């Protein structure tokens, strides 16, 4: 039996794909390394170059140029992306979109232990900016299409890969948004798989849950601003712009938006209640069950919210001060004081409703509350269906027996907001596991376990095969 035949047999029988040949893993490592080591920060990087390099990889695997669509906006030459098409054998069926962003958060070499733009394998981990977010999944998608082409696999449904720029920076050119507005037909799909969820490890490194994102909160910035005539600092006045702003911020800090639920977040707490009970955390498990009642128990909500910031963020809209700007001279009373409030808004709640609530909380007509630039649309969460969840649950039971698959409402934001908004249901599925520090995503010395990345690669390959061959 040939290597390819053996591989296909393993897929059909539901067997393990952990060992598929050293050359196969070497190819993936090369793709991952090249992508990670291509700087794609907004300040000094080049997403267009990264997209071109990934297109060259796909072309080397046999993709014709007609199925590789590089795109750039004229006024953003370094923020381009790539759409690659792998045709299915049934043109009547809608395809599947494999979505990943290739831009990364800024990283300063002087702050890092290692060069953030050199992939380092050390202590069983990969270290680099983007090693996790989101070049791990981007590299997996490129590798998946290369493997399918090299193995001459003909899936029932067409697969579409979209590598885009601009996800990490609010207000920057966003490739996913551009595609939905200018190349909607090119990325049209029955559904999309994206980042936004992962596997959780406890403090001891034990796998606890595998998440599937079904919906996300919406990021929105607001400005709190106080203006004042000012004056000489030798003659202090009670009406001080900084003090007035400080009192407003204290009120915002003390306020909690009401708890709310989506289908995904309700399922998440139902599952977590069972997990916490199994851990011996009966009080927390009981509180999770109580907050799901109609009406929910306020004391249970308070207990769960205080226990874990992620649980709190999953339950409600949250707003937090992130930046301050005040005064114009050390010897003058401030004429202006500003603060940025970053909110993560629960699905179904409008940005204007949150602005009005902040204004009510501040309760000071001299503190102006302004809605700043809106990142994008606020679509409803995609439906949780057996067609989406079933294959994930099947593979999770094979890869990690006993680890439950748990839907979540993502407290953060992804490019799924743009694809969901145009009718492409988008789910976060990234089966790599991270501990409580989340692999230092967006922070110093970002890392991802080598084992977890390679397992996640094989999981997603098999998942795509199952989805693509579904009727």
Q: In a few lines, what is going on in this structure?
A:
The protein has helices at 3-12, 22-36, 47-60, 135-150, 175-182, 184-187, 241-254, 263-278, 282-291, 298-307, 309-315, 351-362, 386-399, 416-421, 450-468; strands at residues 68-73, 76-86, 96-101, 120-122, 125-127, 159-164, 191-194, 199-201, 207-216, 218-227, 231-232, 318-326, 332-333, 336-345, 368-374, 405-410, 426-428, 433-434, 447-449.
Overview of the molecule:
The protein is an alpha/beta fold and 471 residues long. It has 2 domains: 3-196 and 414-468, Aminopeptidase, CATH 3.40.630.10; 218-372, 2-Layer Sandwich (Alpha-Beta Plaits). It has 15 helices and 19 strands. The strands form 5 sheets. The protein has a 6-stranded mixed beta sheet, sandwiched between helices. Helix 8 (263-278) packs antiparallel against helix 9 and helix 10 (298-307) packs across helix 11 (309-315). The relative contact order is 0.17.
Question: Which labels suit this protein?
Answer:
alpha/beta; 19 strands; Aminopeptidase; disordered N terminus; 15 helices; Alpha-Beta Plaits; 471 residues; 4-stranded mixed beta sheet; 6-stranded mixed beta sheet
């Amino acid at each position: 039996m040939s290597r390819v035949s053996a591989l296909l047999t393993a897929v059909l029988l539901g067997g393990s794909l952990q060992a598929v040949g050293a050359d196969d893993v070497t190819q993936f490592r090369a793709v991952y390394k090249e992508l990670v080591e291509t700087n794609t920060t907004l300040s000094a990087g080049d997403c267009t170059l990264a997209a071109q390099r990934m297109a060259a990889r796909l072309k080397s695997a046999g993709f014709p140029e007609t199925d590789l669509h590089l795109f750039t906006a004229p006024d953003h030459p370094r923020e381009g992306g790539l759409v690659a098409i792998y045709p299915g054998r049934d043109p009547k069926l809608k395809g599947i979109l494999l979505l990943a962003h290739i831009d990364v958060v800024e990283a300063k070499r002087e702050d890092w232990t290692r060069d953030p733009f050199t992939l380092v394998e050390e202590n069983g981990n990969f270290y680099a900016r983007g090693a996790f977010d989101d070049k791990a999944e981007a590299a997996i998608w490129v590798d998946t299409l290369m493997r399918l082409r090299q193995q001459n696999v003909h899936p029932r449904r067409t697969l579409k890969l979209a590598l885009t720029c601009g996800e990490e920076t609010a207000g920057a050119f966003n490739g996913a948004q551009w595609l939905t507005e200018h190349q909607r037909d090119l990325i049209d799909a029955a559904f999309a798989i994206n980042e936004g969820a992962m596997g959780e490890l406890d403090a001891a490194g034990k796998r606890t849950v595998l998440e599937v994102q079904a919906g996300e909160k919406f990021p929105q910035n607001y400005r709190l601003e106080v203006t004042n005539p000012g004056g000489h600092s030798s003659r202090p006045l009670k009406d001080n712009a900084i003090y007035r702003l400080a009192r407003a911020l204290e009120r915002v800090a003390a306020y909690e938006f009401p708890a709310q639920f989506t289908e995904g977040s309700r399922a998440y707490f139902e599952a977590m209640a069972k997990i916490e009970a199994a851990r011996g955390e009966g009080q927390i498990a009981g509180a999770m069950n109580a907050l799901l009642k109609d009406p929910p128990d306020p004391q249970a909500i308070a207990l769960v919210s205080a226990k874990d910031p992620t649980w709190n963020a999953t339950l409600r809209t949250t707003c937090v001060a992130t930046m301050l700007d005040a005064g114009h001279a050390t010897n003058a009373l401030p004429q202006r004081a500003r603060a940025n409030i970053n909110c993560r808004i629960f699905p179904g709640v409008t940005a204007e409703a949150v602005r009005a609530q902040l204004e009510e909380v501040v309760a000071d007509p001299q503190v102006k509350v302004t809605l700043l630039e809106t990142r994008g649309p606020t679509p409803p969460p995609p439906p949780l269906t057996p067609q989406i969840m079933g294959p994930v649950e099947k593979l999770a039971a094979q890869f990690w027996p006993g680890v439950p698959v748990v839907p979540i409402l993502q407290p953060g934001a992804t490019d799924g907001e743009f694809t969901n908004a145009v009718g492409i249901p988008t789910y976060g599925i990234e089966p790599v596991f991270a501990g409580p520090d989340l692999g230092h995503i967006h922070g110093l010395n970002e890392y991802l376990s080598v084992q977890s990345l390679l397992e996640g690669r094989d999981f997603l390959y098999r998942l795509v095969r199952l989805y693509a061959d579904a009727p």
